[in-house]
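Quick question about two entries, pasted in order.
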Amino acid sequence: MIDAGSIPLRRWRQSFRRPDLLVVPGLWYRRWRGRRELARADPAVWRDLGITSAQARDEAAKPFWKS
C-alpha cells in the first residue's frame, strides 16, 4: 500500500495518471509493425535474433495491444 505521507504529493498523483493519449497509439503501431515484420521474416532472421520459429509465430500472433 502506498503511504502518501512518505512521498511528495505531486509524485504520488503522477503514479495514477492515465497514459498520454498521443503515446499509446504510437506504441501500438510500433508493436503491430514489428510483429508484421517478424511474421514475414526468413527463418534465417529468426536464428540471427536467437528465437525459434514457434516463438516468432507466437509473438507475431499477439494483438498489438498486448506487450
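Here is the second entry:
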Amino acid sequence: MVWDTIEKSAADKENASLPDPDAARRAFSWQEARRALDGLPGGGLNIAHEALDRHVAAGKGDRLAIRWLGQHGATRDLSYDEVLKGASKFANILAAQGIGRGDRLFSMMGRTPELYFAALGTLRAGAVFTPLFSAFGPEPVRTRMEIGEASALITTPSIYRRKIAAWRHHIPSLKLVLIVGDDVPDDCVALGPEFDRASDSFDPVHTGPEDMALIHFTSGTTGRPKGVVHVHEAVVTHAATGRNALELRPGTVYWCTADPGWVTGTSYGIISPLVNGVTMIVDEADYDLDRWYKTLEREKVEVWYTCGGAFSCSALGSLSASQGSWRSWNDGLSRMAKARHGSAVGRAEVAVSIIINSIAAIAGVCPMHTCFSCTVEEGGHGRPFGAAGRSQAATQQLHSAPRRAKKFVSQANKER
C-alpha cells in the first residue's frame, strides 16, 4: 500500500527541534558542539562532569534525573544532585580500594540505581567503565575481562557465584570485586556498607579529551570479541546526537530500553540523556508488552528509544501478519499517542532509532544510522514521513561526526 507523504505545517516546522534541517546541517560544526559543553574548571573534559556537575552548578540540582521503576513495583526518584552524590560516593569507594586513573572497572548487572552510580562514579574517578551483557555465560565474560585487563568488577551475588567465582583468581589484573548488597562471598567487598560510609563529595579527576573513558566490546559472533576504546571527548557526540536526533531537551521525559551491557545502553541510556538534562525513565524489568504500554502512558514518556525488534513486537502485538500488519501498526501507534498525550486526538510523533550497523556505531562513526519515524494523526492513523522527515534529516548531518573511538583495547594495553 502506498501512502501520500505527510507535509508539515508552518507551525509544526517552527516548533521543531530543527525548523530548517538543511540550514542546520549546513551550519553545523563540531567546534560549536564542543563549545556547548562546559569542560572542567581549568581545562580538560570529563563525561561525568558534563552529565552531573554542570547541571548542579547551574542551579538545576533538584531536577529529576532518574525515575527508577523496580521490577516488583517499587519506585525511586533521584535528582541530579542525588545522582551526583551517589556517583561521588562510588568514586570514593574506588579510590579507597586503590582504583583510579586508567584502571578498568567492568560492570555486569541490571538496571538498578547502583549501575548509574557506578558508571558515573568510575568516570569521575578517572577510571574506565566497561559494561558487560548480563546474559553472557562464564566464558564470554572471562574472555572480555582478560582482553580488557580488568582491574575491578561490580556485579550481583548470583551472577558472581554462577559465572565468575570459579575463575576469578585466574585474572591477575583483577584487584577488586564489588558485590551489590550487604551479603557477599569471600574475597569480595560488599557495596552496601561501603556506600553508606563513603563521603558524597569527590571532585572529578582532571581527565583530558583524549583520555580513555569507556571500553565497549563487540558481540563476538564473528570471532574473538574486540574491545573498542572511547575517550572522554565522545561526550561531544553523545550530547549533539541526543539534541539533534533524539530531540532531548532539559526536562524531557525520556526512556531508553537498551540493555546497559551494550554500547547503546551506555551512550543513550546514561550519558547522552543526562548530559542533555532530561528525566530518564529506568525500568528494571525485562520486556513485557503490557508493562511497556502502561509505563509509556503513566510516565508520559515524550521520547522513547528502543530497538526495531522490540518496537515491532510492541506495535504489532500478537496479531499475525495475515491479519494486516499496517492495521496492527496503527493500533500500536494509537496506543503510543494516547500514552504521550492522554488522547489520540492531534499529532504525536513516535520516533524509533534502529542501529543497522552496530560495529560502525560502536566505532563512533555515526551512533544512529537510521531513524524510522511516523506520525500519529487524528484517530490514531499512522503514515510514514517522507525523505524530508525531521529525524532523517537530523541523522544525515551526523555522518560527518569525528571518530571518538581511537583504538582497540589491545593497542591501549600495549601503551599501559
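Reply: The mean pLDDT is 79. The chain is about 40% helix and 20% strand. Hope that helps.
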